[in-house]
Specification:
Blueprint: H1 2-24, H2 26-37, H3 42-54, H4 58-71, H5 83-96, H6 100-111, H7 121-137, H8 141-151, H9 160-163, H10 169-182, H11 185-198, H12 203-215, H13 219-232, H14 238-255, H15 260-273, H16 279-293, H17 296-309, H18 312-330, H19 335-345, H20 348-364, H21 368-379, H22 388-401, H23 404-421, E1 424-425, H24 428-432, E2 437-438, H25 443-453, H26 481-496, H27 530-536, H28 552-557
Antiparallel strand pairs: 1-2
C-alpha cells in the first residue's frame, strides 16, 4: 500500500509539473500558432525573440531571428519592417550573447553579401548604418569611415535596394559627419561634391559644406559651393531664400565694400529671380549696403525698386521707408514726388494715411495751402465711419491754421464724402474682415438723405392756386401774386392823377391779364377789393374792376 501511495503521489507531481511547464510555454505556443497562420508577420517574430529573452534563453532568441530571416519575404511582410529583424538579431548577439564577431558577421552577410533581398533601399540603408555604428562603438574609426564610403559608392550589388543606396540621405548624412570629424579636408570636399553631382544634396547640406570651407579659410570655394547650391535650388524653392541669405551675408562679411561691382551683381541676380513675397528682406540688405559702401542715389533707387516690386501688403511700409531715406539724404522737399507716387499706388486706406503724413510734412514747412490741398484730396479716400482719425486730424489742422471759410469748406467736403460713402453698407462681419457690400440708392433718396443731414427741406412740386389757369408763357416780373398786386397799385395811382382819364375797360391798352400765371408754392394774401383801394387813395373815383382781372377767383367768391 505504501508503494502504491508513493507512486500515485509521484504521478500527481509529474502531472502538475507538466501542467506548469505547459502553462509557462503557452505564450510561445500561441505565438507559434500565429506564425503558422502568417509567417511574414514581422511583429510576431520580434515578440517571439523577446519571449525567449524573458526566459533567459538568448541562444533561442537568436535562433528564432535567424529563422525569421529565412521565413519572411520583404514584399509580403506585415506589422513591421524586415530590417528590424536584422537589427534586433545584431543587438541580441552583441549585447545579450556578448558576441561582437557574430554580430559583425550577420551585418556583413546582409550588407555585403546581400543574403536578404529587401524591397526598399531605406531598409538596407539602415542595416549599413548599423554596421558603421557597430564599428564606431568598437572605436575602429578607419573601418567605420571605409564602410560609410562603401555604402554610398553604388557598388553594393545589382539588386534594386542596393542600387538605391547611393541616394539615401541617411547614409550621406552619416558619411558627411564622419568625413568632417575623421577624414581630411579633401575627402570631405570630395564627398560633398559627389553628393551635389548626384543631386542628392539638400539645402542644409550646401550650407554645411559652405560653413565647413569657411571655417577652414577656403572662402572662394565656399562661395562656389553657394553658387552650386543656388543653381540646384532656384526660386521658388523653399531653400533658395535661405541659401541666398547666407550667401550674401558671408560675402559681405568677407569683402565688405571692397568688391562693390561683384556685390551689386549678386544682389541684382538675386532680386531678378526672387518672388515678390520674399524680396523685401533682400531689398533692405541691398539698400543698407549701398548706404554704407555705395552712393546715396543708388540706395534710393534700390528703395524705389522695392516700392514697385513688393506685394501690396508691404507697399505702405516700403514707401514710408523710402520717404525716410529720401529725407535723410536729400532733404525734406525731395519727399514730395515720393508721397505723390505713393498716393497713386496704394489702396484707399494706406493712401489716406500717407496723405496725413504728407500734410503733416507740409505743415512743418509752413505750406498750409499745400497741406490743405493734400487733406482735401485724401478726404475722398477716407470713410468718416471707418476712418474717423483722418477727419479728426483735418479738424485739428483747420482749428490751428485755418479760418471760418476754410473750416466751412472742410465741413462741406465731409458732408459730400459722407453722402458718397452713404451708399456703402457694412455689416458686423464685413467690418471685421472682408470687403463692403455696395448697394446703390436712387438720386431722390440720396438727395433726401443729404437734405436731412443739412436740416433743409427738399423742394417739391406743389399744386397751383385754385382758380388760376396755367399759362403758356411766364415772365420773371410776374412770378407771384404779390407782383400782380404791386402792378395793379401802380396802375391805380397813375389813373388817379388824371381826373379826365378814360374809364378803365376790359379791352383797354393797360388791361392786366393774369390768366397765364401759374399758381405758386405758397398762398399769398388775396387782392383787396376795389372799394378799399379807392378809400385809401385820395381824389380817385370808384369804378368797377373788370372780372377778367381776377379770373377764377371772382367766380369762386360768387
Amino acid at each position: 500500500n505504501g508503494e502504491t501511495a508513493l507512486g500515485a503521489s509521484a504521478d500527481v507531481e509529474l502531472a502538475i509539473s507538466r501542467a506548469e511547464h505547459l502553462t509557462s510555454r503557452r505564450p510561445l505556443l500561441l505565438n507559434r500558432v500565429l506564425l503558422r497562420q502568417n509567417p511574414h508577420n514581422v511583429g510576431e517574430w520580434i515578440r517571439r525573440s523577446q519571449l525567449y529573452l524573458d526566459l533567459g534563453e538568448a541562444d533561442m532568441a537568436a535562433s528564432a531571428l535567424e529563422e525569421s530571416l529565412k521565413a519572411v519575404s520583404a514584399r509580403k511582410s506585415v506589422n513591421g519592417s524586415p530590417c528590424t529583424l536584422v537589427l534586433t538579431l545584431a543587438d541580441v548577439l552583441e549585447n545579450k550573447r556578448r558576441d561582437v564577431v557574430a554580430a559583425r558577421a550577420v551585418l556583413e552577410r546582409i550588407c555585403a553579401g546581400n543574403e536578404y533581398e529587401f524591397a526598399d533601399a531605406e531598409d538596407l540603408a539602415q542595416c549599413h548604418a548599423a554596421r558603421v555604428e557597430l564599428e564606431l562603438r568598437r572605436e575602429d574609426w578607419d573601418a567605420a569611415l571605409n564602410l560609410a564610403r562603401r555604402a554610398v559608392s553604388g557598388k553594393n550589388g545589382a539588386s534594386k535596394a542596393a542600387r538605391g543606396l547611393s541616394r539615401s540621405l541617411r547614409l550621406w548624412n552619416l558619411l558627411f559627419d564622419l568625413e568632417e570629424s575623421l577624414g581630411t579636408v579633401q575627402t570631405a570636399k570630395d564627398a560633398y561634391d559627389r553628393a551635389l553631382e548626384l543631386k542628392v544634396a539638400t539645402p542644409s547640406h550646401v550650407l554645411n559644406y559652405a560653413s565647413f570651407l569657411k571655417d577652414r579659410k577656403y572662402f572662394e570655394e565656399s562661395f562656389a559651393a553657394y553658387e552650386r547650391g543656388v543653381g540646384l535650388f532656384p526660386f521658388p524653392h523653399a531653400g533658395a531664400t535661405l541659401l541666398w541669405k547666407n550667401y550674401l551675408a558671408d560675402f559681405l562679411e568677407r569683402y565688405g565694400g571692397s568688391k562693390t561691382p561683384r556685390t551689386r551683381e549678386l544682389f541684382d541676380r538675386c532680386l531678378s529671380e526672387c518672388p515678390p513675397e520674399e524680396s523685401p528682406e533682400f531689398y533692405l540688405l541691398y539698400g543698407d549696403y549701398e548706404e554704407s559702401h555705395g552712393l546715396a542715389k543708388r540706395a534710393l533707387s534700390v528703395y524705389e525698386r522695392m516700392c514697385a516690386s513688393v506685394p501690396p501688403s508691404e507697399k505702405y511700409a516700403a514707401y514710408r521707408l523710402y520717404v525716410t531715406k529720401a529725407i535723410q539724404h536729400l532733404g525734406i522737399p525731395s519727399a514730395r514726388p515720393i508721397y505723390e507716387s505713393a498716393i497713386s499706388a496704394l489702396e484707399d486706406g494706406p493712401a489716406a494715411r500717407i496723405c496725413l503724413e504728407y500734410a503733416k510734412m507740409e505743415t512743418g514747412l509752413r505750406e498750409t495751402d499745400r497741406a490743405r490741398t493734400v487733406l482735401a484730396y485724401g478726404a475722398q479716400l477716407a470713410d468718416p465711419r471707418r476712418d474717423p482719425d483722418y477727419w479728426r486730424a483735418w479738424h485739428d489742422f483747420e482749428v490751428s491754421h485755418g479760418n471760418e471759410e476754410t473750416f466751412r469748406e472742410m465741413l462741406r467736403v465731409k458732408r459730400a464724402v459722407q453722402a458718397a460713402f452713404s451708399t456703402v453698407n457694412y455689416n458686423a462681419a464685413e467690418m471685421g474682415a472682408g470687403g463692403p457690400r455696395v448697394e446703390t440708392l436712387t438720386e431722390e433718396a440720396a438727395m433726401e438723405m443729404i437734405a436731412e443731414r443739412e436740416d433743409m427741406a427738399v423742394e417739391k412740386d406743389r399744386p397751383v392756386v385754385g382758380g388760376f389757369v396755367k399759362g403758356k408763357k411766364r415772365t420773371a416780373g410776374m412770378a407771384d401774386l404779390g407782383e400782380v398786386e404791386r402792378r395793379a397799385a401802380r396802375l391805380r395811382e397813375a389813373t388817379a392823377g388824371d381826373e379826365d382819364a378814360a374809364p378803365v375797360s376790359g379791352a383797354g391798352d393797360d388791361e392786366i391779364d393774369i390768366d397765364d400765371i401759374d399758381g405758386e408754392e405758397e398762398e399769398e394774401e388775396p387782392v383787396p377789393p376795389p372799394s378799399l383801394v379807392a378809400k385809401n387813395v385820395r381824389g380817385v373815383s370808384e369804378k368797377a374792376i373788370p372780372a377778367a382781372v381776377f379770373g377764377g377767383l371772382a367766380a369762386a367768391s360768387g
